Amino acid sequence: MFRRTHGFRRIAGTVATLAAVTLTANACAGQDSAGAGGNSSEITIGAWMPLTGAVAAYGVPQKAGADAYFKMLNAKGGINGRKVRWIVKDNAFDPQQTVQIARQLVGQDKVAAIVNANGTAQAEAAFPFVLQQSKVPIVNEGGGSESWYDPPRPGLFGTQTLYEDQAAAVAAWAAKDGAKKILVVHSDPAAFVNVAKQVEPVAKKVNPAVEVDRLTVKFQTTDYTPVISKVKAKKPQAVILILTSPEAAAFVKEAKLQGLSLPTYAYAPVAAESTISLAKDAAEGLKAVQLVKAPSDPDPAVKEFRTAMAKYEPDETAGFLALWGWSNAKVFAEIAKTIKGPVTSDAIDKAYQKATKVDPGVSPVMSFSPSNHLGTRSVQRVVVKNGVWTSEGDFYTPPKRD
Question: What are the start-end ranges of the H helices in 225-381?
Answer without folding.
Answer: 225-234, 245-257, 273-279, 300-312, 320-336, 345-353
